[in-house]
Amino acid sequence: xxxxxxxxxxxxxxxxxxxxxxxxxxxxxxxxxxxxxxxxxxxxxxxxxxxxxxxxxxxxxxxxxxxxxxxxxxxxxxxxxxxxxxxxxxxxxxxxxxxxxxxxxxxxxxxxxxxxxxxxxxxxxxxxxxxxxxxxxxxxxxxxxxxxxxxxxxxxxxxxxxxxxxxxxxxxxxxxxxxxxxxxxxxxxxxxxxxxxxxxxxxxxxxxxxxxxxxxxxxxxxxxxxxxxxxxxxxxxxxxxxxxxxxxxxxxxxxxxxxxxxxxxxxxxxxxxxxxxxxxxxxxxxxxxxx
Amino acid sequence: xxxxxxxxxxxxxxxxxxxxxxxxxxxxxxxxxxxxxxxxxxxxxxxxxxxxxxxxxxxxxxxxxxxxxxxxxxxxxxxxxxxxxxxxxxxxxxxxxxxxxxxxxxxxxxxxxxxxxxxxxxxxxxxxxxxxxxxxxxxxxxxxxxxxxxxxxxxxxxxxxxxxxxxxxxxxxxxxxxxxxxxxxxxxxxxxxxxxxxxxxxxxxxxxxxxxxxxxxxxxxxxxxxxxxxxxxxxxxxxxxxxxxxxxxxxxxxxxxxxxxxxxxxxxxxxxxxxxxxxxxxxxxxxxxxxxxxxxxxxxxxxxxxxxxxxxxxxxxxxxxxxxxxxxxxxxxxxxxxxxxx
Lengths: 291, 342
Hints:
The complex is a heterodimer of chains A (291) and B (342).
Chain A: H1 15-25, H2 27-57, E1 60-61, E2 68-69, H3 75-82, H4 84-118, H5 121-136, H6 139-150, H7 162-187, H8 190-198, H9 203-232, H10 235-240, H11 247-255, H12 261-285
Antiparallel strand pairs in A: 1-2
Helix pairs in contact in A: 2-12, 4-7, 4-9, 5-7, 7-9, 8-9, 9-12, 11-12
Chain B: E1 6-15, E2 18-28, E3 33-37, H1 44-52, E4 59-64, E5 67-68, E6 79-82, H2 94-104, H3 109-122, H4 138-150, E7 156-160, H5 168-185, E8 188-193, H6 196-202, E9 205-210, E10 213-218, H7 220-225, H8 230-235, E11 241-243, H9 244-251, E12 256-258, E13 265-267, E14 277-290, E15 293-300, E16 305-311, H10 317-321, E17 327-333, E18 338-339
Parallel strand pairs in B: 3-8, 3-9, 6-7, 7-8
Antiparallel strand pairs in B: 1-2, 1-4, 4-5, 9-10, 11-12, 12-18, 13-17, 14-15, 14-17, 15-16
């Protein structure tokens, strides 16, 4: 009697199986296939556009015809650095971005802490939805809602200007500060807070020595959002800003009314530079090493 | 007579509709190594957290050294906790972790340093002061957590499943070490565990928890040799119950009785027993060889089954495996059988 088990049929050698087996054996090929689309997007669409911006910033326009002159020149940057009005606007923009970031931080941190550490799981879900919901509404609708509220006939009637801009931008970008801090605090084990209390620390010391240092990377992530979004905004400024212009408006006006694309590009490099300086400063504090 | 280190009176805790602790009264003496043993969800950790101050009791009081601390915050209590996940501050090095409690209490820098180093030395972690917790092994983290709590010289040290995350070998080492550290510092240790062996080997007394209540409090020997209920008999060791008709037939008595496996002797069917012993005949249903000892599962003729543990003094696995299916007589001394309240 033949007791040998029947031979297992050889696996089918279809082309798809061959391909799967090839990819299984070659991890490098697999990785590059997966990454090729995002790498292409990042390289061409994102970095490419940024490079085009930098190149354009060194061009100029013909004063009479308004045509582009594709000859490298420092002229735009000279204008930018020598004219007082641009320095004032740049500093004002940074001031607005800093103010918005600080206001959002002051509101977002307690809110995120309550969501992550104090709320019941059920309440937590609802609070996350409550924070996300305003993001579904149109930016313009929200900005105009503030215009109505701030206008002389409105609920607040504080009028338009820099304060109105700061207030409206703080409102618009608040979720972008709350969510990273919430996620960061959510990852912070409750036992660390209990351990601090157990070792004799009261609330404020626990916050200062345990919660804040461990939440700092999340705070910085949130501040990068609020800071950069504020720095680049021009629509809110147009709607509630009154006469005080920000960098974004200068860019916009030079593209539109002034028809000076190269100068707009030069102005647009300013917030990019400011963000690079900000990120370098953040890196130096070492806050990103605990991520 | 001085006040007990910990006194719990009528302690209860409910989380919404769930009753986690349903009435606990307990006195723990100064300098005692005390274990709270029970399955998960039995309320032992909740009791520990109420002593630490992380939970507020729904009813009852917590006293530390005769002072009612029921309503005090954790930072107002003279206890320190070793957390199950150690809860080391990841952004501080080992020395800063250990010094945290001293810094909060404004101990001068020099004394702080000195006490931290002494605490680290007592858990054999010299030279690790500059390391971050992430650079330590599980066993080392456990020791840092211990040093961080002990350096404050609390009245009571609370340990929440302190060895749960360690592997077997390390756990056995730390059991011995914890015990000797406790003897050295003389602080009351109160620890929570679900591991009955850990509770028996380390503690002076054990409280066995089930469904939010204490089933029995006693020395390890009392709890093991004289379990007060079927639950304790089953949770602490192998239960080996004889009840119902089998109890009538074998012991001539009504009720439920328990004999520990190592108290049973495997004998030939024709072995005669004297008046101090009891015996029962049965068939070996299963043989489990475990190195130093072998477990025999014996189906009794009178009904039910008993497990007998025999030291492998002379025999090897070859010998014992052949015993499956043979008829045997189990013999035990009468003083090793005890009635339990179901």
